Amino acid sequence: MMKIPRSPYDRLVNVVGVCSLCGTTAWLLAVWKQIAVHIPVHYDFRGHVDRMAGKGSLWVLMAVGWAMFLALSVVEHFPQIWNTGVQVTPKNQEQVYRTLKNMLGTLKLIIAVLFSYLVFQSAFGGNLPPQFLPLFLLVTLGSLAFFLVRLIRLK
After folding, report:
1. Which pLDDT score is estimated for 87?
2. Mean pLDDT, residues 33-58 taken together
């Protein structure tokens, strides 16, 4: 089993991601009584609320955010199960796995920030800004494209 050493980037995205999720969880506990009984739980493409539910659904959102973050954290430790998309050779192995580990870390950070933002937005009861969906897609898909291009160049 190959062990990929932690880089400063790994540490940074993990600390920021964990702080985002922990901070949001703590905030939710602190303001729970002030949150309305019914909160937005679904938005249309323009960011307008199209479904309301009980505020307990905020805990589901937090649980999904934590579960995704933790699942990617576990996967991060087993590079031998990653589908690299390129032929891994002794010459490129370290760079391929480093690139993929950075991609996973970036996705973890995006997920943590996204779920934290959605919890805050739902708790405050407002619509999402109209640029939310395009921006989320641009950041997520742009990050994936960036790392995949780097990966392809390592062939």
Report:
1. 86
2. 93
